[in-house]
């Protein structure tokens, strides 16, 4: 059976009182963050429904303490992949059946697949939910879904496709909600900063992500760090994972002063708490940058090969993006690793954009100290 496509002004079917809703967005930190405002909006519309989120193990802690979620379903993707790669098909089938039983335990009657990949569609189908709604895409096996919609008009607002999906369900608009940071993570983040000697305002730099075409130049990060420290009195904090440490150390060597390198020293949720408390975050297309935007914190996103949004939905977020003939190229750069889209962003442009976002108390304190 082919899924029903809902285009234009057509709404999805009215689902008056779902008992259990399952959100499918298993991976990608930034996308999980940008999709997270769906949860309180669903909770407001369906106060008596159970709401679960299916996610990979690495991101489970991000959602574990969400007040509007009744639980998370952890998908053991790695085990499935290992069984397939090693040709252990009997083991793979056992894993799939066990996970299907876990999904059937919560008895979802509405699944929202906001990833739109073959694997997420398969997981939606595996749930047995009578309503399986997702986005149209180039991925095969559309029959795994019951209803498909496009991703909505290209408004270039952060998370616009998720807002559009809930609009199509007929849900009332809701006020913006921030990503919940649990108290323990916030306290640990404060201790980490204190160990670095940071007890006042600071800025966060988020230079790292998985694809090189999204990176900015290391020497420019160093110049931005020096300027924020020297001219605005903001000690720069560099966030990332353990694998980002060599690049962070290279940036430090290019600086005139100290950068507080926290790569691998804080968990993902603790890093989010650090971003939430920062006077300014500057980053590339990565989860930490998107977190600052969702939290309505002063932030600048540097885009080149990708451009997921141009409008942040708040007054304190800015996007720097130069549209070139080859941009956005997403996963298929044609510039032979030259990345002119990112090189076209200058240090002066970033600082000029940052200055109005930095609170007056920070700026005045910095200049009084000179």
From TrEMBL:
<dbReference type="InterPro" id="IPR051199">
    <property type="entry name" value="LPS_LOS_Heptosyltrfase"/>
</dbReference>
<dbReference type="GO" id="GO:0005829">
    <property type="term" value="C:cytosol"/>
</dbReference>
<dbReference type="GO" id="GO:0008713">
    <property type="term" value="F:ADP-heptose-lipopolysaccharide heptosyltransferase activity"/>
</dbReference>
<keyword id="KW-0328">Glycosyltransferase</keyword>
<protein>
    <submittedName>
        <fullName>Heptosyltransferase-1</fullName>
    </submittedName>
</protein>
<dbReference type="InterPro" id="IPR002201">
    <property type="entry name" value="Glyco_trans_9"/>
</dbReference>
<dbReference type="GO" id="GO:0009244">
    <property type="term" value="P:lipopolysaccharide core region biosynthetic process"/>
</dbReference>
<keyword id="KW-0808">Transferase</keyword>
<dbReference type="Pfam" id="PF01075">
    <property type="entry name" value="Glyco_transf_9"/>
</dbReference>
């Amino acid at each position: 059976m082919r899924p029903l496509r809902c285009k234009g002004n057509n709404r999805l079917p009215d689902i008056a009182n779902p008992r259990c809703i399952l959100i499918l967005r298993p991976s990608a930190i930034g996308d999980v963050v940008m999709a997270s405002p769906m949860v309180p909006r669903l909770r407001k519309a369906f106060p008596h429904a159970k709401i679960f989120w299916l996610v990979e193990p690495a991101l489970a802690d991000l959602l574990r303490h969400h007040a509007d979620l009744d639980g998370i379903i952890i998908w053991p993707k790695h085990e499935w992949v290992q069984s397939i790669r090693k040709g252990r098909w009997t083991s793979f089938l056992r894993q799939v059946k066990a996970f299907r039983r876990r999904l059937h335990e919560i008895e979802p009657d509405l699944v929202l697949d906001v990833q739109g990949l073959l694997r997420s569609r398969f997981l939606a189908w595996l749930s047995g939910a009578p309503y399986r709604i997702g986005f149209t895409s180039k991925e095969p096996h559309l029959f795994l879904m019951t209803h498909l919609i496009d991703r909505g008009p290209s408004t270039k607002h952060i998370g616009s496709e998720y807002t559009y999906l809930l609009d199509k369900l007929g849900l009332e608009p809701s006020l913006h909600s921030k990503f919940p940071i649990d108290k323990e993570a916030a306290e640990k983040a404060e201790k980490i900063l204190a160990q670095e000697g940071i007890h006042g305002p600071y800025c966060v730099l988020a230079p790292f992500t998985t694809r090189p075409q999204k990176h900015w130049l290391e020497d420019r990060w160093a110049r931005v760090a020096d300027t924020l420290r020297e001219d605005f009195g903001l000690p720069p904090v560099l966030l990332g994972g353990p694998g980002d440490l060599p690049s962070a150390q290279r940036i430090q060597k290019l600086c005139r002063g100290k950068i507080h390198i926290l790569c691998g020293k804080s968990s993902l949720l603790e890093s989010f708490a650090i971003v939430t408390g920062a006077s300014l975050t500057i980053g590339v297309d990565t989860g930490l940058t998107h977190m600052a935007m969702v939290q309505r914190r002063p932030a600048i996103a540097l885009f080149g090969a990708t451009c997921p949004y141009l409008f942040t939905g708040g007054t304190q977020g800015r996007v720097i993006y130069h549209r070139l003939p080859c941009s956005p190229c997403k996963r298929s750069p044609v510039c032979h690793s030259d990345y002119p889209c990112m090189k076209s962003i200058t240090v002066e442009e970033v600082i000029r954009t940052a200055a109005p976002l930095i609170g007056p108390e920070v700026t005045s304190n910095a200049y009084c100290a000179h």
